[in-house]
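User: Quick sanity check before I run a bigger batch. Here is a single chain. Can you write out its predicted 3D structure?
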Amino acid sequence: MKSILTLIFTTVFFSNSFINHFSYDEKYVQIITNIYKGDKFIFVKMRREGERIKAKYFASKEFGNTVYERYSEWSKGKNIILACGAAYFDWGIPKFDYKKATPVGITIDNGNVVSYKKSDRGNGLVIVYATGGIACSNIKQGKLKMKCSGESFIFNVNQDKDLNRFIECSKEVNATVFQQHLLAYDGKLNQLTNFSTEKKERRFLVVGYDENNKLFHIVIHYPTSSSLKDAAEKVFNFLMDQELTKIEFMVNLDTGYQDVFKLYDTNGSEKNDIKGTEPLTSSVNLLVYYYE
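Assistant: Done. Predicted structure follows.
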């Protein structure tokens, strides 16, 4: 009898340990589907209060390991909420070999410079800090703020001298940086011109505040086949009317050849609310949110 009770206790203990180890508190994460003015929006709304929700970005392959291999090793024991492709990339040779692809635009991976060449495909410079926070700067404005060596600095990365100083600062704080289309910034929708008119499903990263001045990170999926301009306008209007009072920034997430997206529920089981067409193994870069 004692052996049976011990076995039951051990089984329950390890079962609960497994669930708790690969889970997150739903108080911090909501997966929502909403119909607004006839359009469908699916989004993951993550509360940053208490900094339990953190972001991690894998910008490129490293030391011979692919982004997927790096993610697989890092994610062991982590409570993953979602993982998705983010920045644009160029194919290597041969084309369509994801292992040969390289990121487009200014790219820094945990303090290591991958590319310092600016791209004309987006004015948003997204900074993912080692602490799990995310910030974004409008490259055109030339007022990128970052703290290092105990001081706050403002960099104009359009100038080579400031770009070099920004890179050195990023190395010091182990920041990760990628460039993307900046669709909204500081509460306003940007002038959405000269964008591709190709119609497809769209996905965005949005950071903003609600009516209680609480900070949220939102990854939102707009499943209707649309141009980038039309989708950005509809998502911005929906979020401002239904979810947020101010949008700090909204950037595009790649849904082209790198249409990668994995979403998990509170018990660590994969969900299909938002699902990419490509497997995680195709990741050229990867934005990850996790609970700690």
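Helices lie at 2-21, 67-74, 160-173, 228-242.

User: Great, the batch can go ahead then.
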